[in-house]
């Protein structure tokens, strides 16, 4: 057929008849796939079918629905789904099959086999794409009857979903038909049948047929704008009337959810046509119903009302200016005053969705109200504190448009300055969390992102520098801002404000920030009249507060795009290196090490990088050997190793070997073992793809291959007092491997993991249990060889002092039975409710194991 098409077509219908004879009775699935493809070609390439249309249909449809189970170890790999899709493509390839196919589909829809129902419905949906009004007309009543029955009666969500899809396709097909003046409008009569059978059920919100009826009506209405207008003209007034008639909140919620479904369909068309829209004519009633839901005591009804409000707001031109003001007032009340947090959070999300559509209304009405609430008396009652918290969250939520961001950011910064004077870290963290949310929302808008960056970053730096200088001169002033908790909350703000900057704007910003830390250049900061110079890298105890601000430098420089040049980078790296090894404050030393590692990870390969790394090694090795700052040296080693492992740098293996050697150290061994978690886990603030770090694919798998044999070897050669360090390091590596890799590699390490379960370290126990879980599910044949040992160890861990270990051990006991039931009696009386809950679940499953149907 590919090379002799003209000759074959010259044979006319004789070729089609000959093919039908050859195909008749074929059973081999390989040949059937070829045969189905040939039939599709016959139809698609307009071969003459002559009087053999029905015969061609019969010779293919006899395989419908496909009932095929591939034999085990089938070398051809043909699946049932392949045959189903190939046959469906044949049956739905031409309208000429319609008069034969549609009765067959109706018959199979009545089948007791769910697979036959699903196949029939999916085939009907496919056929609607090529059928017209003429092909469907005769069968519409029967098709509707079958679809209605299935949706009303089925217990299967799959069958229901396919029925609704088929009804949608039928309505769409009828909507596309071109009408002449003397032909019947089949769409109108079809929709009339649906309305006649379903509409009255909407008046019974407590009955079980209300939702099937609503779904059928929505499926038909969603097919086209014409069908939407026809259905909503009948249904929307009824729903509004029923909402008024039924006073109970549960009934109103059901009715409003149905109404919401139709509103969402209008949202799909994207506009409201004044001439035809039923929705527009019912504007006042719809708004009244939605607003009443927002003031109802029922939280569930409020939540549906908020969703409906969001949809109405998205319909351009639907809400009048006075309605919009009411919308904002309702959202403010729900966000700030509603006791239930669900309604409050939903109202804030709705404000965030609607703010970009109506920025002037929200910036002119909502932001001033929130600012006013925020600035009211600062008494420390829990109610006032909760209200302030909600104001901050609402200001952040509504900041989804650049013009609103310009209003909310100054309010949030002003509040941050205000609470700084109150010296309460908790309030400052709340303000920082709101600023961070605004930063994330600005990232996709270049204008908003740059405004936010140049407004917030200098302001935060100025506040921090001012506080650090006050702390240096007067230790009691500005202390809250310098606490780890507050600085840690400021880091993601600066990072999020920097990661999405264009290279040109980032270069402009870096030219100010780096000189601030290296040279004390404060001229770009607002309110820059400081009492003394800013020298975070200088020696002296009085400068300890200033050195803590390296965390903010880290947030900035480690979030820059890789192609942005950092001024004085080599000097900055040397200063960070010295600070990380010499500072007595763990927080400062760690942030300096992280900042150094973040810069090293992005540094272009070459002599300069090699020199810096050699300097780092020369600093670390003596520090690790002896002295009072071994912990700082280990922290630097871990972060530099992570930076190099991520980018596959050759020095990473040498540093990893150094870390492996420290596992045998009595003092640093446990910390070095925990360091393997740091190497493998995703870091939240530096060295991840979001901040443009150089992260190679499959670095975890490579680290596993290179280092796990060394861990195993070290374990076998280690003394009994440090063996736990090797087990802990191994379990951290395994825990961060992708599950498919873990399942293939774990069997070789199983004996070691069983030994790890006897380790007294709770971290090792918990980590090992989580490693064994996928093996129990994916490789039971391997685990069955060790069943006695596993059950014994799991049972002993159900009495562990650590609650998390007891829960994990109980969860893993579910796959075993007889000897477990008696042993599980003890955890049933555990002092912790969560442990008792897991024990009940495990013991119940054990009792039922092997019973009929289990």
TrEMBL record:
Primary location class: cytoplasm
Location relative to the cell: Cytoplasm, Cytoskeleton, Spindle; Nucleus
Keyword tags: Cytoplasm, Cytoskeleton, DNA damage, DNA repair, Nucleus, Repeat
Domain of life: Eukaryota
MMS19 N-terminal domain sequence ranges: 4-153
Biological process per Gene Ontology, one example term: DNA repair
MMS19 C-terminal domain location: 391-813
A GO-annotated cellular component: nucleus
Alphabetical list of Pfam families matching this protein: MMS19_C (PF12460), MMS19_N (PF14500)
Quaternary structure annotation from Swiss-Prot or TrEMBL: Component of the CIA complex.
Similarity comment: Belongs to the MET18/MMS19 family.
Protein role: Key component of the cytosolic iron-sulfur protein assembly (CIA) complex, a multiprotein complex that mediates the incorporation of iron-sulfur cluster into apoproteins specifically involved in DNA metabolism and genomic integrity. In the CIA complex, MMS19 acts as an adapter between early-acting CIA components and a subset of cellular target iron-sulfur proteins.
Protein name: MMS19 nucleotide excision repair protein
